[in-house]
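Whether sequence alone determines local backbone shape is best considered at the level of individual chains. For completeness, the protein is quoted in full, as a sequence line and a line of structure tokens:
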Amino acid sequence: MELGMIGLGKMGGNMAERLRRGGHKVVGFDFSADAVKKLTDEGSIGVNSLEDLVKNLTAPRAIWIMVPSGNPVDETIAKLKPLMQKGDTFIDGGNSNYKDSQRRYAELKPQGFNFVDVGTSGGIWGLQEGYSMMVGGDQDVVERLRPIFETLAPAKAAGWGRTGPAGAGHFVKMVHNGIEYGIMEAYSEGFSIMNQKKEMNLDLAWIAEIWRYGSVIRSWLLDLSADALKKNPTLEGLEPYVVDSGEGRWTVAEAIDLNVSAPVITEALIRRIRSREHDNFTDRMLATMRNEFGGHAVKKA
């Protein structure tokens, strides 16, 4: 099957390579000339313009967009539409807000275009392990794209599936990432507690290795944690600064809108935000209040 790809960064480039290995024709475009060259060197077709991307695909076309969420997706679609024709399909495989995906579907469908949103998980390991894909869109369109999903997934019948209508793919991926926040926070807190028990001289990398087999808390995230601790047991040289890409915030906002209590995911998000406060006024305010009401010592900067 043929597929156009826009955005050949680490994840997009790996997806293109996995598709090529699976026997699919991939035509890719990126603003980075190096990324385009790498795609060509690996055996796919790298092009330097959207016009050439479309020309190298047979109608009905399917183009997978891997660009940052928000305006970049809308701008990419707007540039492609005049070059494409009715029956062609836009696939948004990035981390878009599900409401944007619903809007894009509603705009494109009356114009004769198909739109599919794919929440994609797998990161840099997807090339070897396969990608988990949560797909939203019309059933017949998703079915037509089945060979693509089967090749990108860990197995033909595992790790991917249609979760519902347009927007459902990105909605489920949003919740997936919210859960990820909570799991990561729990692991981090647990290892921190063990790290502070100095008198036991606990080997965190070894403990993580023990937990990886048979434990009820074993997971791929634990596998990655164990590997990281082997490389750097004290996490020396790392700043306690954690970014968030937006899905956690959207998950918390959605929980509030739906009147669903989600304290673990919410607190995990707050912890990430707090990690960026180099000059933490909140903690200084707490210390000041303790000093005022109880005369507790305050450490001076």
Remarks:
- The chain has a mean pLDDT of 94.
- Residues 168-196 form the longest helix (29 residues).
- Strands lie at 2-6, 25-29, 45-47, 62-65, 89-92, 114-121, 132-136, 160-164.
- The two ends are 63 Å apart (CA to CA).
